[in-house]
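Chapter review: from sequence to fold.
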Amino acid sequence: MPPTEHKGLLRWVDEVAGLVQPARAYWCDGSATERDRLYEELVSAGTFIPLSPATRPDSYLARSDPRDVARLEGRTFICCQREADAGPTNNWVPPDQMRTQLSALFAGSMRGRTMYVIPFAMGPAGSPLEIWGVELTDSPYVVVNMRIMTRMGTAVLDALGQEGEFVRCLHSVGAPLAGKDRSVPWPCDPGNVHIAHFPETREIWSYGSGYGGNALLGKKCLALRIASTMARDEGWLAEHMTVIKVTAPSGEVKYMAGAFPSACGKTNLAMLVPTLPGWKVETIGDDICWMRLGSDGRLYAVNPETGFFGVAPGTNETTNPNAVATVSHSTIFTNTALTPDGDVWWEGLTPEPPEGLIDWKGDGWSPERSDKAAHPNSRFTVPAAQCPSIAAEWMDPEGVPISAVLFGGRRSSTVPLVLEAFSWEHGVFLGTCLASETTAAADGAVGVLRRDPFAMLPFCGYNMADYWAHWLSMATTAGREHLPKMFLVNWFRQGAGGGYLWPGFGENSRVLAWVFARCGQAGHEGPGGDGQARQTPIGWVPAPGALPTDGLAVAAPQLEELLRVDLGEWRAEAALLRDYYNLFGDRLPAGLAGELAALEQRLAEVP
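The token string follows.
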């Protein structure tokens, strides 16, 4: 008997079963016993390779089909009634048309397989922002990853009761079994991938891929695309942001949120180990943040996830020692290389690769080969509670009050190391300016500069211009004096020779210290010292001597270049941004058009 009396849920499960025709339905309870059994089944099926208990206890390696390795933005759809509501940055298909297409694909798609019913919750238990969902999937890999990334199991059914609302999440790898055929270790249907979102009915249908955000439907699909539409309707914010707790040497604490495109340093910031003496950074969340206005008018943030689904390449003891410690045990790795002694390896983990590596496809590998041993988008899935830097309040149902919001892209020029917005509206404007080089986290060319406003380009569930208007509205909903300050940061500015000017990683704590000092101040222009700034046409930048640089191996000319505002580059940037804004027609908020005009005017006034 199903472990629930929720008639709407039972009806939906029966309807889906009639369409996908599984061999059986299994209701997940989230227990350790269930987890262990599924791990054994995944090992038996060849999907999981157990890693050495001596070097990586309770950990496993999965290898995906080489055609199923990343988010597929070109196959991700927003299916609302009106195309204008999806906007020019989303792929739109009418809901009825998409349901017809998907029903044909899903028909019999789970034949011969188990349909797992995964009740899950996003957000801390009891939080005003807690959202319940149920994912139906034929992938045990998805089940065990969802157990790490969400609160999953019978307790969620108990919370749902008989009438609780939930987001319907349907997923199939699209590889039915006929007769006694044995499944391949990584079943998928890469030629027919669809990740479809129905924001008006709070549904997600995903077909053909078993990888990452395409299949773990609580993550990008629910926590961002669907949640962003819920946030718009209900007056809160669902964001692609890390959340950190920063403690100054005085013991004063401030919480900060940071929006960075995938694989641009968001996880490194979330787990940062400061080089600046006396400072401490702790982790609230590494990827997604939900924010609501508290009774005091401040924005309070929660991390809706319980795990990290992080990019492995480039992670090491220098870039992110806390991440290395986090994945020391009880971790699922996907598409990394395998060492001869049963451990994992990826580019950047050690200066030199160990001998005898097996690459992410299962073939022998040597440094002479031109390809990578680990896929550039190889991942680790690990409980957040294992992170040494996890903050005590990371699961506080009320959330933590945000003092600063950071926007950070990957720019080789134009954007200085850090600048502060003049106002809330100007901060929203800076968020729309965010651009970054594309990475291996999404399909397509790597290294191309693209606009990624608020780091939400692939994740906003409705018209991006309406999303900007929603952010602007927070200044009228809340007391302006209580809203966070907003900053643009750029760890990736390059010199004339092409090398990075800023050492990054733990040294980013020096920028956080300046941001910390700026919070709560109005203007504070001055010649230097703690938190002082100088005004430029694009915002406030640190005054000479304002950044703490003791012990920093960055020469004065290098630091000057990092903070330089090139008027010619910004005039060109403004022209490009005006072209970008034109994409949104009359949906563009008047406040942003005004901010762009004001920037152009300030730039014109400077000789």
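Two observations follow directly from the output. Residues 7-49+69-235 form a domain with the Phosphoenolpyruvate Carboxykinase; domain 1 fold (CATH 3.40.449.10). The first helix runs from residue 7 to 20.
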